[in-house]
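Hi X.,

You mentioned you wanted examples for the new student's onboarding notes, showing what a folding record looks like when two proteins sit in one file. Here is a clean example. The first protein comes first, with its sequence line followed by its structure tokens.
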Amino acid sequence: MARAGIKLRGGGPHQSKTMMLVELTTLFVNRGADKPTDAIIRDNVLAKPSMRARQAALCRLRQLYGVGETWPICLIFRRLWDRNPLGRPLLAVLCALARDPSLRAGASAVLDASPGEHVRWPLIAAAFETRHPGRLGEKMAKSLAQNAASSWTQAGFLEGAVNKKRVRAQPTPAVAAYAALIGTLCGFGGMRLIECRWLDVLDRPAEDRLALLRQAEGLGLARVRSAGDVLDIEVRRPMANILRVPEIVG
């Protein structure tokens, strides 16, 4: 996944964190996103058994989703979360991919698999090894790949407890707009945007991706124009306006 034009978190491989959809939902329901330290550490809204567990949860939520931060990509995520309950798993995995280099490094094992194909953790570990030869020992690679497999399962790309099988994810127009926003910030435009790795997360062919973005236009989250072979997709300004995040345009 290309990194040009956007500050993706992390400079090198590290231990991938499992997506935390339950904790994220609980935090947002309890209106703790603006003051996550108070909500998680002081008020224990996540019902963690110890102070250490509370601190670990806060750290992971910050790493994966920028909870409490003001990065535009994280603010957009938070506001789309409220608007699009059905898209939350895919919104979360897109935000996590933008912030977790290890999850990105192993993504091809899942995104390139066909529906019905078994995707076990060694395949994810092998994809990571291809990107970063010799960087991890066997134990760390297994842990990283198992955490990544759990994340992709929560996002709706895999099913099964141990012998995970590839299934089709369920994107929404808001998810398509968010994927296009990240892709745009990475320097993609036109058909290159439609075909880029970020929109592969929509788990649909190019014509369906474009159709989802046209639906997002009806929600005020995108602008799609085509003339002949020229395709123009604008998401930054529409999303900045409707979600009140002007920083995304600058």
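Then the second protein repeats the pattern, sequence line and then tokens:
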Amino acid sequence: MDDPNLHFIPAVGQPIPAAPVSIAVWEWPGADPPLLFAHATGFHGRMWDHIVRRFPGRRALALDFRGHGRSGKPVPPIPWPYFAQDVLAVARHFGVRDALGVGHSMGGHSLVSAAIDHPEIFAALLLVDPVIFPPAHYGAPPPDASFILRRRNRWASPSEMFDRFRTRPPFASWHPEALRSYCEYALLPDGGSFVLACPPALEAATYGQSNAPESNLYAGIPSVRQPVTILRAGATGTPGVFDLSASPTAPDLAAKFARGRDILLADHNHYIPMEAPELVAAEIAAHPS
């Protein structure tokens, strides 16, 4: 399958005053209706490469959310509604209608938020362990993501990152192609070395916004009439401990949608697209194209 084309489009819904921010979008040309992919916090659009290649000839779009990948880096924190605006900007720019939206983690949240405002964009949604908490979590103290600030930020090369991560959890259980894509596009050149494309301070601040009151989608979820499939990880966390491998998804979330379907993957953690791409691909293939 050919490499995707890289486009840059202007972000909308920016705080004022603010410097203009561009959104990077990776496009695999092909037949409509398209697949529209949205990644998790700290990742990038090329995390979907190993899944997109399973659908040759299908048009696919994968954005880098603002603050991530090749997109512009606004000053954090970024309220989560702005990530939904990134999805809407992509849909408007590329004329997307009746897409299958595929979103992991924060990406799943953002697709739901976009579908609430502009349902014509999507024919269906596939949400992979979306960050949509039980209602009581919203407005509570934010998760302590300070450990993210200690992430190693500078690397000699993507290959160095891959070699360091491939035997360490959680990366050791990832599909090798997913880990290679992560390392290749998680870094940006900086002088004679590389730095993380999603700076640790921005990533930590993004997690801190995850349960802010404006991130609560429950008032709008019943208006989403499209079929919604949720792949929900079985891994659970310890109360009071922010565990990136644990599922953040409300166990009864599917029941809140008009046409929701819940699939519990008891043996998997939050990194389902990286660990079990065949499960995600099978759900994509099950939707009419």
